[in-house]
Amino acid sequence: YTVVLIGDSAVGKSNLLSRFTRDEFSLESKSTIGVEFATRSISTDDGKVLKAQIWDTAGQERYRAITSAYYRGAVGALLVYDISKYETFSNVERWLKELRDHAENHIEVMLVGNKSDLRHLRVVMTEDAEAFAQENGISFIETSALDASNVEEAFSSILTKIYEKVSRKSMNSDAAGSGKTKPMANNASKVIVVDNENDDAAPAKKKKCC
Amino acid sequence: MSNLARHGDDDLGFEADSEFGSAYDEYEYDEYSCSEYGYEYGDGDDDQLAEAYPRALPLELEHALVGLMVDVQQVARCAFRGVGSRARAVTWGVLAGLLPKWHGDRPAALANHHLGYVYAVEAAAVRLAPSVMDRIDTDVERTLPRACVFSRPPLSISLARMLRVYAHARADGQYVQGISDLAGLMLVQYLASVSRATSGPHADALAAAQPVLWWASIGELAASVPLEFLMAVEAEAFACLDSLLAASGLRGLYTPTQPRVLELLDAVDVLLENELPALAAALAARGISSPLYAHRWIACLFARELPVGVLGPIWDALFAYRALEANRLGAFVVALCIELLRMYGKPLLAPDLTFEAAIHHLQHLPLDSWGPADAVRFTARAAAAEAIRHRAHLLVEAEAEADPSPDP
């Protein structure tokens, strides 16, 4: 699945990605220019292996006319803000609009309050973020890329939700009698579901394209 | 008195009438009015360049720079071949138009420029929105973080000032990421160049430093020079940056919607399809277009891709284009992108290469082992290709004018 990381500059998107894909955190991270990329596979409860392509976008993306290239084909988005900087939370609404304008209609979105280790500097209350997420029909979690808390959970949760959504769509389309699926023009957007026959290196078996 | 403090008036008439003094004053004194002066490419990261381009090149450059009037065309031609770090500041200054052709005009021009920069700093401090200043401060700390030179004064202050002035004066009060790498590297290369042209323990340490220690040396150097001197270096580095970006619409790399980035990325896609069709097809088959890999190349003018010692010769060539063919500078940047793809595109033709592997290859090109001579060869090939494209374009236009097709 293609998942994009979006949110204001310096909220910790690149470190969330490196924590999830390489279990690394860097205090010396540079600003992201353009887009960077990493992959990781996870297992679901029902034994499927989900391969995620995660795109880390620049925090200033919403100022740019280039976003469609990055959002095209994304089935999930982690919308990240910094719990110690209120402005990054205020801008979440604009990021949501950005997603609605450029991304797929049914993209799964999760609001992520990062830097939860900075308890003494917290300015965004958990309840406020929860309420915002509820109002907008998106899920919510607080994470810390520094101490790794909830990072795994955030990515696993959104990937599982995407998987469930895709599975439901698949069942619906089968029930509707179509049975066939169209491959995506853009390989970056392909949905890859790999059977968990404990061989990650085996060629991915394409079950369904979104 | 600091070893970088100014020498007295020199015999070329460089007088200290700027309130800062000029970074060039002593530079020119040491480099160009001393008969024993010679480019000794035996130090640090210039070794490879010395092998590829022995003393004939620096002498050409010296002749072009030393006369009563600078031969800008000749300096630009030399810059295409890389000028070495000691000559970099004066070369960029000449090619950027900061230093007038007539030596005698320089003190007044520099004094005016320094004063103008001080006013611009004050105006930016008053008028720039606090949120923009915050974004700049955040990015200053994150500029070349491993080098640790912009995480503390005085270079953090200098870089923040440059970015504020640019945002206020050139980007409608907005700040766009990418320019901090450009400005930061221009500042330190400029400082290193000026200091290497003088004598003294800091300059010697810098010249002797291995690449890994280079950054520590430049940090120590910046901390030891008088603030007035650093401010002069900052003002002149800013002028070079501003002049480079004024050419060929490159300011559009750092305005909010980044129109020039989009145009240049489109040009990369078109040229790739025309000139490297197999590679273009291989990338298209994997859904890879230029924004996914060339955005950073263009938005940082390769500052993120190459080590500082290698970046110098490439920026020398950019300044040469700025002086000789300013309106084709954007085309040259695109030519550099195409040349990189030509050099490193072969692995991408493998039929079984995955999307992930292809993107990883493009975003992490193996450029760490490059030396300055590699950079000079790279820019020479890109410039030759750009010139051929330009001539072909002119030819097509001339033919179309000579033989207009009849109206249907």
Give an overview of the whole structure:
- The complex is a heterodimer of chains A (210) and B (408).
- Chain A is of the alpha/beta class and 210 residues long.
- Chain A has one domain: Rossmann fold, CATH 3.40.50.300.
- Chain A is 31% helix and 22% strand.
- Chain A is built from six helices and seven strands, in the order βαββαβααβαβαβ.
- Chain A has helices spanning 13-22, 67-71, 86-90, 92-102, 126-135, 151-175, and strands at residues 2-7, 35-43, 48-57, 76-82, 108-114, 139-142, 193-195.
- In chain A, a hairpin with a 4-residue loop joins strand 2 (35-43) and strand 3.
- The longest helix of chain A is centred in the C-terminal third of the chain and has 25 residues, at 151-175.
- Chain A is globular, with a radius of gyration of 17 Å.
- Chain A starts with a strand and ends in a 15-residue tail after the last strand.
- The relative contact order of chain A is 0.19.
- The model of chain A is unreliable at 178-210 (pLDDT under 50).
- By secondary structure, chain B is mainly α.
- Chain B has a domain at 259-401: Orthogonal Bundle (Cyclin A, domain 1), CATH 1.10.472.80.
- Chain B is 64% helix and 0% strand.
- The radius of gyration of chain B is 22 Å and the shape is globular.
- Chain B starts with 22 loop residues before the first helix and ends in a 6-residue tail after the last helix.
- Chain A binds chain B through residues 9-10, 27-31, 33-37, 39, 53, 58-60, 63-66, 69-70, 73, 87, 185-189, and chain B through 131, 135, 138-139, 142-146, 174, 176-178, 180-181, 256-259, 261-262, 265, 285-289, 291-292, 295-296, 299-300, 304, 355-356, 359-360, 363.
